[in-house]
Amino acid sequence: MKRISDINPLGEERPNPSDETREQLRRSRLQREKDEGYQMLVELCTLGEYDMAQQLANRNFNWGYEIVDGIVMERID
User: Contact, 67 vs 50, CB < 8 A?
Assistant: First the structure.
């Protein structure tokens, strides 16, 4: 780790990622959020909190899940 006095505020910065790299990062972040959301919905259903799971699924429509008879299902549009 550098000392503050050794850092040049006008020095080289981090390079900006390309549009393709940004898109890949965005897609991976969205997939990670979707996977984490699925896990939360499954845990709520396992605990018997079907209404809460339904509310969470409705608030996060972009995850693509819905609760049907206490089971997490992928939403079909």
Answer: yes
Alpha-helical runs (H) found in the chain: 19-46, 50-59
3-state secondary structure of 74: strand
CA–CA separation, 54 and 70 (whole Å): 9
- pLDDT tens column, 4-52: 777 777 766 667 788 999 999 999 999 999 999 999 999 999 999 999 9
Check the CA dihedral 63-68-74-77 and report its sign.
Answer: negative
Q: Are 57 and 41 in contact (CB under 8 A)?
A: yes
3-state class (DSSP) for residue 72: strand
Report pTM: 0.73
